[in-house]
Amino acid sequence: MGIDLKFFFVRAGMMGWLLINLSVLAKSIQDGTLSKSMILFQLFCALYILDYFVHEEFMTSTWDIIAERLGFMLVFGDLVWIPFTFSIQGWWLLVNEVELTTAAVIANCLVFLIGYMVFRGANKQKHVFKKNPKAPIWGKPPKVIGGKLLASGYWGIARHCNYLGDLLLALSFSLPCGISSPIPYFYPIYLLILLIWRERRDESRCAEKYKEIWAEYRKRVPWRILPYVY
């Protein structure tokens, strides 16, 4: 009926996440407990969510849209998991006081900015490449393997570098909570497990699809997510 169900559900989840966060913010203001930690958490999440809607077109080149089937896991993840678990940090800050130093605030902002630059930059490069394989990457002609796989820009650094950006963003949402409890770090820990699992599935799928081209890409770009580490 002309409705893209994958986008329908993910939009609902992202909007639900934002609404829950705003409710937590309102409660914090009402109680007179608004802190730098809460402001950072709210700001980072709001920027991430609004950026998603501004650059939603780039999602059409991601695993969720291309390869993931529309079933219980994806729908439950969008409608329940995203809004109710990604907002845990806000709930935690309502009942726990955290004093951040100026250095901690600056470091937290840097983690967010680096994560955003890598995540958004990598997804944009892949999307632009799929639309126009000759479009320059970082001001230079793209390196292409087998006429299909981009090996320039972020994609010449790691085969799943967008996951690194996503992990740094998730970490930046939790860092405002300090390190006194593991509870606010549920999201980045869960995301790390999910993305490693997804990266393995993606590697298997690409090896089957691209065969010797993928093998050549692996030789050219040996790192999976984090250069010199993994």
From TrEMBL:
Membrane topology: Multi-pass membrane protein
Cellular localization per UniProt: Membrane
InterPro entries: ERG24_DHCR-like, Sterol_reductase_CS
Pfam families, A to Z: ERG4_ERG24 (PF01222)
Xref: Gene3D superfamilies: 1.20.120.1630
Chain segments annotated as transmembrane: 7-26, 38-54, 74-94, 100-119, 169-197
Alphabetized UniProt keyword annotations: Lipid biosynthesis, Lipid metabolism, Membrane, Oxidoreductase, Steroid biosynthesis, Steroid metabolism, Sterol biosynthesis, Sterol metabolism, Transmembrane, Transmembrane helix
Cited PANTHER family: DELTA(14)-STEROL REDUCTASE (PTHR21257), DELTA(14)-STEROL REDUCTASE TM7SF2 (PTHR21257:SF52)
Protein family: Belongs to the ERG4/ERG24 family.
The protein, known as: Delta(14)-sterol reductase
